[in-house]
Amino acid sequence: MLTNEKIKDFAKKSGADLVGIANIERFDKAPPELHPRTIFPETRSVIVLGCRILRGSFRGVKEWTEWSSYWIFGYGAGIYGVLDEATDMTRKFIESYGYEAVDVPGIATLPEAGPLRPPVSPDRYPPNISISFRLAAAAAGLGELGYSKVFLTPEFGPRQRFAIILTDARLEPDPIFRGELCTRCMRCVRECPAGAISKDKTISVEIEGRIFEWADLDYGKCKLTHWGFNRNASPFVKKDLPGLNLDISKQNMSWKEAYDFGWTLANRVKYISLVSKGISEIEQSGRPGSICGARGCIQACFDQLEKTGVIPKFYTPFIV
C-alpha cells in the first residue's frame, strides 16, 4: 500500500531534503490557471519536494570575490540536478504502485509572464500554465511565505527550491504549518538593491484556515536586477557596457519586458554570457543568469533568521 510515509522516506533517500504532501482540496480557492487539475485532471494529491541551497553558494557574491557559485549551484545544475533526480525516482516509485505521477518541474515557474501562446482551442487554457510552487509548498505544510514572497522553512529559512509531483493516489496530507518564521523585520525591503519589495502593500491567500501574506512586488525591477543590469547589485554591466546606466528605481518594465531585455543584452556582457553558457555545455544560448545574488530577499533574510535563532546557526556568521 502506498502511503505518505513511504513516499517521503523514498524521496529523501533519493536526494530531497524536504517533502510535503497536500490533498487537492487545499487548492479549491486557486484560480483555474493555477490549479493542479488544470494540468492533471485526476490529481488527488500534490507532492512537493525541496532541496536546500547551500549557504556557501552565496559567499562569493556577498564578498564580491566569485559570482558563479550561486547561479550554478543555487539555481542551475547543482541543485536542480539533485532535485530532478529525486523527482524522477519518486515518480517511478509512485507508478510502481499503479498510480500515475505527473511532474511540474521548476522551469515552469514563470506565471508572471502571462500566457506566451494562445490556447489550442477556445475551451482550453494556454499551454504554459503552471502552479505557484510557493503556495503549493505552503499547502504541503513545509513552511510559510516570507514578507518578500520567498518561501521560508524551519530547516533552511529561504534557502531551498522546489519541484512538484501530481498524483491520482489519495494520500494522507501533512498538516498546514502553523508556526511563524518571518519576523517582519523588513530587512528584505531595506536591502533589496532593486527596491522591488513594497513597504506597505501586501497580498494574501487563505489555505485551510491559515492566512499567508507577502509584499506586493515590482517584478520588472526584480527581474532587471536578477539578470545583472542593476549596478548596485553587480559590477559586470558597468565593465562591459559602460554607457548603459539604468536607474532601476525609475524603470516601469513588466516582468516579461525585463525578461526579454535581459535576453537581448546577455551576450553583450562577458560575465553574464560566460556564466549562462557555463551552466550547460549543450545549450549554448547565452541565457542570462542570476547575477543579483538575492541580496535582500534571501541573503539578508537567512542572516536575520540565523541571528535571531529562528533557523539553525552556522559557526561563521554570514554578515558581521
First-residue to last-residue Cα separation: 51 Å
Number of helices: 12
Shape: globular
According to DSSP, the number of beta strands is 8
Mean pLDDT over the full residue set: 88
> Percent of residues in helical segments?
25-40%
Provide the gyration radius in Å. Answer: 20 Å
Strand order, largest beta sheet: 1-2-6-3
Q: Element order, helices and strands? A: HEHEHHHEHEEEHEEHHHHH
What structural class is derived from the secondary structure elements? Answer: alpha+beta
Main sheet properties: 4 strands, antiparallel
Quote the beta fraction.
15-25%
Low-confidence stretches: 279-285
Describe the SSE topology.
Blueprint: H1 4-13, E1 18-23, H2 36-39, E2 45-52, H3 59-62, H4 68-75, H5 77-95, E3 101-104, H6 133-139, E4 144-145, E5 151-152, E6 160-167, H7 187-191, E7 197-207, E8 210-217, H8 219-226, H9 236-240, H10 255-265, H11 270-278, H12 295-307
Antiparallel strand pairs: 1-2, 2-6, 3-6, 4-5, 7-8
Helix pairs in contact: 1-5, 4-5, 8-10
Can you walk through the features of this model?
The protein has 320 residues and is of the alpha+beta class. The chain has a domain of 178 residues. Helices cover 32% and strands 15% of the residues. The protein contains 12 helices and 8 strands. The strands form 3 sheets. A 4-stranded antiparallel β-sheet has the order 1-2-6-3, sandwiched between helices. Strands 4-5 form a two-stranded antiparallel sheet. Helix 1 runs antiparallel to helix 5. The chain starts with a helix and ends in a 13-residue tail after the last helix. About 2% of the residues have low confidence.
